[in-house]
Amino acid sequence: MLIGLPTEIKDRERRVALDPNAVAAAVRADHRVVVQSGAGDGAGFFDAEYEKVGAEIVDDAADAWAADLVVKVKEPQPGEYDFFRDDLTLFTYLHLAAEPELARALADAGVTAYAYETLTEGGKLPLLAPMSEIAGRVAPIAGATFLAAHRGGSGVLIGGAAGVPQARVVVVGLGAAGGLAARGAKGLDAVVIGVDVDLARLGEAAHDGDVTTTVASNERAVGEAVEDADMVIGAALVPGARAPLVVTQEHVASMRPGSVIVDLAIDQGGCIETARPTTLSEPTYVEHDIVHYCVTNVPGQYPRTASRALSAAVTPRLMALLSDPDSPKLEGALNVRGGELTHEAVAEALG
């Protein structure tokens, strides 16, 4: 099979889905790989490294997209929709629950599309997990940055100082991203309040020392926690579906001016009602006097680490896809085939 690896074009996205080791594995299995020139530059993987393991370098995106199977990081951008066709297979993050136009374009063109974020294995999300881990680690750092007064924040230092209380950080959803966000905020000496619907998960986070205290999620309890927060990190997720709205407009309006919201669920529509997608070029906006950081490709800021982690996770599933498109190793990944949405949660989210 001919595999295409195009350069990512989303704002400041420098990740690449396959590193040279992954390409070498595909070539050893007698597949051809075409890499758009510069696709790996942002992650420190240069054309010569891909050529060394047997890839062919092409100059134009159209040549990479002409492959039988295109492997990417982020969902196709509108400028890439013209490359869609009925004999194309796509393997990437799609987040279709929050991208109805993309879902329609894929279905109309007859693309067979597999999504990283809905692939399940033993009840886990192995292709979402590595990027969730990185986003979770970045979230308290980004939030702390925008708490600075010159960034529009309240001027609260996350770890406080002698005689001055630490910042209060509320983390909504203690899955892969939220759990690491809580741990990172605690490591910066914040007071961390963990919010989740899963009492066992709350107990585990408390036992591990990742949170200062826990709150069982309901509208009133979330409102009370958020009202006193200097930072709220949203990380509530339902695989494939639109993220549940946990923090309401009223909750946000009750927060102190200059506080910061980081919504890591924004790829799936966001779990905070006032959240809307932002870019790495323009990462924040202010609503209700609250700084909102809702970047849809947070791990793209650390492309070397993120690309290596993603490629390691993708490679065995790619090999499964190449040998058997219906492999059990791809459970839940198929989102679009034959002009129809095939993933139940995605289909329900899009009506």
Textual characterization of the structure:
The protein has 351 residues and is α/β, with parallel strands linked by helices. The chain has helices at residues 20-28, 47-52, 61-65, 100-109, 129-147, 176-187, 199-207, 219-227, 249-253, 303-323, 344-349, and strands at residues 2-5, 32-36, 56-58, 69-71, 89-92, 112-115, 168-172, 191-196, 213-216, 231-234, 260-263, 284-287, 290-293, 334-337, 340-341. The strands form two sheets. An eight-stranded mixed β-sheet has the order 3-2-1-4-5-6-14-15, with helices on both faces. Helix 5 runs parallel beside helix 6 (176-187).
In angstroms, what is the radius of gyration? 21 Å
How many domains make up the coordinates?
2
CATH fold-level name of the largest domain: Rossmann fold
Relevant CATH superfamily of the largest domain:
NAD(P)-binding Rossmann-like Domain
What spatial form do the alpha-carbon principal axes imply?
Answer: globular
Q: Under the CATH scheme, which class of the largest domain?
A: Alpha Beta
**What portion of residues belong to β-strands?**
15-25%
How many beta-strand elements? 15
- Report the total helices: 11
Q: Just name the CATH architecture of the largest domain.
A: 3-Layer(aba) Sandwich
Q: Strand count, sense and closure of the main sheet?
A: 8 strands, mixed
Q: How far is the N terminus from the C terminus? A: 35 Å
User: In order across it, which strands form the biggest sheet?
Assistant: 3-2-1-4-5-6-14-15
